[in-house]
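user: can you give me the structure for this one chain? tokens are fine.
assistant: on it. calling the predictor now.
[tool input]
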Amino acid sequence: MTTESVPAHHTARTMAVTTAVKTTVHPPRRGVRRPPVPHGTFDAWGAPGLRRHGQLAGLLAADVLAFAVTTALLAPRNWPGPLLALLALVPPALHACRGLYRPALSPSPLFDAPAISGLALLQWLAIAEGFAAYDPRYTAGWRHLVLAVAAQTVLCCAARALVHRVRRWSAQRSPQSVLVVGRTALTQQVTTALYDHPEYGMRPVGHVDIGKAHTVPAPASDPGSPPLLTSIQDVSRAVIQNAVRHAVFTQPPASDVESEALLALFAEHRCALWLVDGGAAVGQTWRRAAGHDHLWGFSVTPLHSGLHRPLARAVKRAIDTLVAALVLVCAAPVLAVCALAVRIADGPGVLFRQERIGLGGRPFTLLKFRTLRPADEQESATRWSIALDRRMSSTGNLLRRTSLDELPQLWNVLRGDMSLVGPRPERPYFVSQFSHTHPGYRDRHRMPVGITGLAQVNGLRGDTSIEERARFDNHYIATWSPWRDVCILARTATALFRLGGS
């Protein structure tokens, strides 16, 4: 028997398949297989189509509608209407920066109400001050502002509650297949909770046990449990045949070859990844203060959720484009001076081009000011550091110490090859080496590479620990926000004055 067509009744252990997994692969159902995406690009919203984009669109519409109704009822009558219409985009932007569009299994507008209220207060104060500065006739009283903040908060929470109710109704009518990963004591409890509460819209179709080490002894197999999948091939069949859209981990993914292959498989099929915390480690639960989301009482957080939301990607790309264009224009005289200095000191060939690995493992050509002419292409591709090379001129040394040699990479940012902030790109030769010797290094490529990053502002540049760099890079990806990018850029700007280049 295959893992297909498993009913989801309200009984705790109802399953309609045996634990044997057939060794042949049946042709996938129509519309099941989707185009693969580059390795490491996770989509935290899960399945494509109406449910994923519909919920996001519903939340956006709820926020815009709340602002529009509040403006129509409570904004001063002399405020210009067309400008207020444009300002309707402000609430979604603020909510996106605050993370109010992140995926959740148990979303609650009441828990989001303090954040929504605070952002509404900030928004209306800024709007009122802006109008008053433009024309004193547009000055608004405190009564208008207080009522506007209260009304927008109430309307926004009510509209969001309606969106979440519709989502739960839709999920219950059309549940999506889910794999429960792990063989801990928590695995069966999570499976039972998903069966007993169809409002989550998840239908367990298999247990995945790829790794060999477990911190908790595996429970005995239940005759009514989903089939146990013990190889990547079995998991691949289950994902294709059942159109799996979610993977619920009952223990953190290990840093081994099998776990990396499993994550890559889920990434290829754009499965949403969730990590459930059974609450055994109270200290870890408190440190993971990422929100109030839960799966029937079990704390749950999305895995790899830093930048894998469509709105977040759009915000980051917009910031990159605007800032890179502005800096290129303002720094044009500096670029010209650097280019002239390199031409006079080291001869023709001002720019240095080198192949690097970017998002999803795709190669691109990185630009820098040339500080040292390599002996040949082999040296350029495989030599790790040239910081102490005596062939480097004083001009090249100055450019490297001040990081001015990195300025041409702003063009890479405009082209979309790179971001302002992200993991630093490396050459293919070293990417291959480090991916085999340092767990987690390959995961860095699930985000656009950057000119600077969290590892670099913490002093990890040049000839420093690759393992520590990968750790900082993956932490940055998992906790990304626009404000974090601003902080890293500010720290990078201050570091330039310390001549800390390599």
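assistant: here you go. The chain has three domains: 51-169, 175-302, 310-496. Residues 51-169 form one domain.
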